[in-house]
Each structure stands twice: as C-alpha cells, then as structure tokens.
Amino acid sequence: MQPALMPDHSDAVDSAFMRLALDQAHNAWLLGEVPVGAVIVREGKVIATGFNRPIGDSDPTAHAEIIALRQAASLLDNYRLPGCTLYVTLEPCAMCAMALMHARLDRVVFGARDPKTGAAGSVVDLFSEKRLNHHCVVLGGVDAQACSRLLQDFFRERRRQTRPEESARAQPDALPNSVKGIDVQHLDDVEEPSAD
Predict the structure, then answer these.
(1) Average pLDDT by stretches of 10, the chain with 196 residues
(2) Fewest beta carbons within 10 Å, which of 15, 16, 60, 92?
C-alpha cells in the first residue's frame, strides 16, 4: 500500500504514515535512544523523517520531531512548512510543540500519549492556547497501542539491562557485605515511558 496514492486525512492514510513513523522509532531503539519516530508528509508524499538522537548527537534538542523539521525545512528551503503534516509516535513535548507551531504545520498526528511531558493535552495543551499566533490541527491516539507497546518494551528491556542487581536483591546472601542493605536508585530509572 503506497501512502502517496491515498487521499489526504483519512484513517487509513494516518495509520499508514504512523507505521512509517514507527519504523523510524525502531531506528532510534537500535541506537539505544528512546524509540520515538517522526515523518513529515506534504501532498501525500514523505518529505522528511526523524528519530530520537539526543544521546548520540549529545544534543538535548535532537527529538524526532526536531530532526524531521530540520530536514523538511532544508529540503524545501523554507523555515515555514505550510501544507505539511507531522506524524510522530509519541505526543510532542513543549519544545517540539512550539517548534511545530513556529514551522506553521497544518496538522500534527501522534500515537501514544505522554503523561510526563505531553504538550498536546496530557500535561499541557499548547496547541489549543488561544494566545499563540498559530494553531495546528492535532489528532492523537493513532495506532496508540503499537506506539505505547514499543516504548514499554524498550523501557522493560532497558530496566533489565541496567538493573542486574534486581536478581541479587531477591537473594541477599549473593550481595557482598559492603552492599547489603543499600538500595541504589539510578538517575535514569524510568517507571513510565517518556519522550526524552
């Protein structure tokens, strides 16, 4: 099925492009990044893609949406992207939401909600803030289950890799005397999926 051949703004089109964004999210996972992917579409054609790269790029702004925006703006030789739709697997954070509005995108379609940093209604809703001078049409929950499952699987695997002491905690005699009774919390312990 070729997304470029389908009419704009149907459930089937949104789902097809979200699957492409999920492919981008898998790329992030392969590099050890939080698996969030984004695709920018114009006139039924993919013009830019991106996936989370803040760790690899040592850049706190290297979210999937920002990577895709930079690529699209460069390709179109314009910092404004009217007529474009962004598909992203996770609800945009405040930084990304503002960048999307500054780029003048027509639509933002996201998969999973982000209860920790979501700026499209979960924590705040910047897209509906009347005092801002541009508003994107926002649609959330497209293929949400697949998007959420990818994040949950990633963090489950990450916790297993970064917490080898879990099996030792279950067997206190296996710990060296100097460590017994100490409960260590890691800065990157994550209980819920987050965009960053």
Answers:
(1) 49 96 97 97 97 97 98 97 97 98 97 97 95 93 97 92 57 46 47 55
(2) 60
**Are the C-beta atoms of residues 38 and 68 closer than 8 Å to each other?**
yes
Confidence at residue 163, expressed as pLDDT on a 0 to 100 scale: 63
Phi first, then psi: give them for residue 138, nearest 5 degrees. -120, 135
As given in the structure block, the two tokens for residue 6 are 């389908």
- Tokens read off for 133: 């001078």
Residues belonging to the active site: 65
Spatial distance between the Cα atoms of 25 and 131, rounded to a whole number of angstroms: 33
Q: How far apart are CA 120 and CA 140, in angstroms?
A: 8
Look-up of token digits 């690899």: 56
